[in-house]
């Protein structure tokens, strides 16, 4: 018997996220009664099986946009009996359900016979295979052993559109790439740190890297968000810090040296299983050649290894960061990353003026007014550079001749339910 999702399944799931300090808990901050670890938020009221109300502490301009994100999904009754079991074999109310999970190898999902929504699966299921290297996945795509690939390796950027012969995808997506320099690192706090971050940013030749490494599958960043999001602007005050300017970079670096002479090696950590070595090495070389310092890439074997050190705050250098939008709003790129103690503020950045502007934007009467405030907050971010914006990613993917109806959505994810086997 399929689980029946009711209004209380939403309310209980949202309260559980906050009570147990889950990573998505900060999304519920506007709700009345929100507090870290609180068991129940008083702003959530169940009216009947199909209705519940949400009371916020102040107007939240993008609240409707947020509701499509997975943090707001319901959980079945069985999850609250055994959350570990839910984690190992999630109960779904979507178009698919989990059939098999081979940890670190593959996940197989099959159509959910109890789903009656508009995204009915047009195939017999999907098997997700985890590859240690993107090159291996691309080779399987070319040989017909893989149907859909959502990330072409940089080694194939120059030829994948030709090799796939009409079965390739190269379109803008809501993906922002950067690297973060933790506030606590020696030489990167206070005024010295601000000068060094600006110098490093201006030492990076984004145009050359996106052209030669990414073969124009990336676009140099002009802000901290994405050009596919409503409200994005290419003309935020202060964004000249993202332009390659070696003379200014050297000048700023010298000013920082006058405060405290530089010592050591500047490193950028990345996960080796994600196809990042090419751009990291090119970025490090651009910094090295411009500023005359040692700058290197620091590979970790996989994403988990890198994130473990980032989350524990034991990482000893800069590290690659970025954001794939949860929902199509500017705020989604800003508040989770740069509000004091936010869930994804991995560099521990804190600025009361940024916090204030983002609160005011969230409380605006409409998105147009909110977007103006979001961009004002970005003006401060360009001075402090809690992350170094690099470029916006296109979704670069492809599919085999065995499938059809393959499309990618605004945030670069294939619409799996639409894919059909030939």
TrEMBL record:
CDD domains in the record: PBP2_NikA_DppA_OppA_like (cd00995)
Pfam families: SBP_bac_5
MF GO annotations: peptide transmembrane transporter activity
Lineage: superkingdom: Bacteria
Matching InterPro entries: SBP_5 (IPR039424), SBP_5_dom (IPR000914)
Signal peptide feature range: none
Solute-binding protein family domain boundaries: 4-343
GO biological process: peptide transport
Name used for this protein in its record: ABC-type oligopeptide transport system, periplasmic component
């Amino acid at each position: 018997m399929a689980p029946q999702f009711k209004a209380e399944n939403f309310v209980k799931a949202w309260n559980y996220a906050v009570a147990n300090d889950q990573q998505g808990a900060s999304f519920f901050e506007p709700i009345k009664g929100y507090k870290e670890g609180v068991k129940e938020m008083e702003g959530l009221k169940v009216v009947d099986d199909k209705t519940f109300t949400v009371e916020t502490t102040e107007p939240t301009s993008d609240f409707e946009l947020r509701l499509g994100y997975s943090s707001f999904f319901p959980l079945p009754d069985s999850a609250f009996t055994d959350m570990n079991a839910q984690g190992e074999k999630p109960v779904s109310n979507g178009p698919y359900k989990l059939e098999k999970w081979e940890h670190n190898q593959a996940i197989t999902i099959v159509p959910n016979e109890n789903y009656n929504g508009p995204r009915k699966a047009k195939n017999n299921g999907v098997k997700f295979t985890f590859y240690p290297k993107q090159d291996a996945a691309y080779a399987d795509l070319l040989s017909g052993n893989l149907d859909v690939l959502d990330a072409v390796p940089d080694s194939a950027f120059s030829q994948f559109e030709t090799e796939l012969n009409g079965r390739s995808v190269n379109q803008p997506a809501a993906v922002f790439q950067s690297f973060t320099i933790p506030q606590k690192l020696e030489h990167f706090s206070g005024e010295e740190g601000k000068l060094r971050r600006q110098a490093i940013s201006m030492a990076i030749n984004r145009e050359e890297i996106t052209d030669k490494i990414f073969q124009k599958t990336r676009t140099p960043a002009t802000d901290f968000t994405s050009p596919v999001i409503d409200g994005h602007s290419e003309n935020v005050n202060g964004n000249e810090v993202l332009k390659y300017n070696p003379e200014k970079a050297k000048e700023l670096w010298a000013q920082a040296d006058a405060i405290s002479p530089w010592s050591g090696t500047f490193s950028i950590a990345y996960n080796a299983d994600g196809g990042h070595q090419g751009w990291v090495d090119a970025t490090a070389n651009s910094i090295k050649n411009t500023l005359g310092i040692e700058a290197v890439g620091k590979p970790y074997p996989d994403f988990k290894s890198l994130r473990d050190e980032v989350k524990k705050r034991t990482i000893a250098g800069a590290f690659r960061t970025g954001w794939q939008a949860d929902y199509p709003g500017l705020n989604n790129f800003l508040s989770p990353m740069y509000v004091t103690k936010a869930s994804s503020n991995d560099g521990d950045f804190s600025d009361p003026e940024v916090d204030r502007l983002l609160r005011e934007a969230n409380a605006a009467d409409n998105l147009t007014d909110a977007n103006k405030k979001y961009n004002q907050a970005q003006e401060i971010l360009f001075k402090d550079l809690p992350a170094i914006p690099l470029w916006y990613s296109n979704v670069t993917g492809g599919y085999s001749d065995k499938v059809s109806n393959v499309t990618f959505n605004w945030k670069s994810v294939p619409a799996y339910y639409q894919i059909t086997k030939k």
